[in-house]
Write a structure and sequence with these properties.
Order of helices and strands: EHEEHEHEEEHEHEEHEHEHEHH
Strand content: 15-25%
Number of helices: 10
Shape: elongated
CATH class of the largest domain: Alpha Beta
Number of strands: 13
Structural class: alpha/beta
Helix content: 25-40%
Number of domains: 2
CATH architecture of the largest domain: 3-Layer(aba) Sandwich
Radius of gyration: 23 Å
CATH topology of the largest domain: Rossmann fold
Length: about 350
């Protein structure tokens, strides 16, 4: 298959009728036959037509994973150049489409979009006020947006200690079915994405650039699974990286996340700015504390004095003590004291 086209809509919105019309129009164009009568409402069928040297296969059904897998078998048996199918807007049907595209070596999976007026758009982003992105470009499993989520931010030039702490926390939250959200940058972000996937967890990648610039990093390919990954961009498809976009991306990570963890922030820069934004948005912010905190983590101390909550090791296990973090995630509580202290942060 050279191209896979999916008609994404929720159930009962006319996908079947639309694709039945596509089949009829293709047959008329290919053979010159008269336009046939419209198909009965809800009538599913499949057809393969040769048009202008291309083999085009169309399946009108596609509202569940099992049907999409049947469609995939049909497309492969027909050895079509172009495959057209219905699909739901989120969930396992979307993952089947994207895995199909990867299997047949398309350069990127099919991109689909949520606007803030659609039901599937993450409601937590409305807390961003005027910074709420009007549209999100998506690749992957959008069901992850409905899960509990923890956001990570931190230095691109993290120390080994900082990377070890990130690995520990990422593994623990994955064990508790909490999705890791981060920004795909080197250092802390990449460590969080990698160890959540390595530990059979899930991760959301929020890009500081357009979705067309996304590529799977080489060191992530061995753990990559589109069932457990969602890639998001709020920018135009071909937008390139910039400082302003990276800062805006951080705000979106905060908006998506139930709790934020800041690891090794300097006194100035994007990471500590994300920490201050977290507190200003009345989100819960955690910052690890360990012996011999390096200069790369000098911003952690500032945020702890401003109201971030510390993460320390458990004596018995030597692992990060995340009891309070899981309490806030599971109970959905926001500490009033933090809000009272920092509602006036500029």
């Amino acid at each position: 298959m050279k191209r896979i086209i999916a008609l994404y809509r929720r159930g009962g919105t006319g996908k079947t009728g639309t694709l039945n019309l596509v089949i009829d129009l293709l047959q008329v164009a290919a053979t010159g036959c008269p336009m046939p009568p419209a198909q009965p409402t809800g009538h599913n069928r499949r057809a393969t037509i040769r048009y202008k040297g291309q083999i085009i296969s169309v399946c009108t059904a596609g509202d569940d994973e099992a049907q999409l897998l049947v469609n995939q078998t049909y497309f492969e048996a027909q050895k079509c150049d172009v495959a057209i199918t219905a699909s739901r807007t989120k969930g396992k049907t979307v993952v089947v489409i994207q895995n199909m595209q990867l299997k047949h070596k398309e350069s990127t999976p099919e991109v689909f979009y949520f606007t803030k007026y659609q039901q599937a758009f993450p409601k937590s982003l409305f807390d961003m006020g005027s910074e709420c992105p009007p549209i999100l470009a998506c690749l992957g499993n959008t069901d992850l947006l409905t899960k509990q989520k923890i956001g990570f931010c931190g230095s691109r030039e993290a120390t080994e200690k900082g990377l070890d702490v990130t690995k520990d926390i990422s593994q623990q939250v994955s064990d508790n079915n909490v999705v890791v959200v981060s920004g795909y940058a080197s250092g802390i972000d990449q460590q969080a994405h990698y160890w959540s996937l390595k530990n059979n967890g899930a991760t959301i990648i929020v890009l500081p650039e357009g979705i067309n610039g996304f590529r799977i990093k080489k060191h992530l390919k061995s753990v990559w699974d589109w069932n457990r990954v969602l890639v998001l961009s709020e920018f135009t498809p071909n937008a390139i990286w910039s400082v302003n976009r990276a800062m805006q991306r951080n705000s979106t990570i905060i908006g998506l996340s139930d709790v934020m963890v800041l690891i090794e922030a300097k006194e100035k820069g994007g990471s500590i700015d994300a920490g201050y934004k977290t507190l200003k948005m009345n989100k819960i912010l955690f910052a690890p504390v360990y012996e011999g905190m390096p200069v790369e983590a000098s911003g952690n101390s500032l945020l702890l004095h401003k109201g971030a909550l510390p993460i320390r090791k458990k004596r018995e296990s030597g692992l990060a003590n995340l009891d309070l973090l899981f309490h806030y995630i599971n109970e959905g509580q926001r500490p009033n004291k933090i809000f009272d202290l920092f509602r006036d942060i500029k």
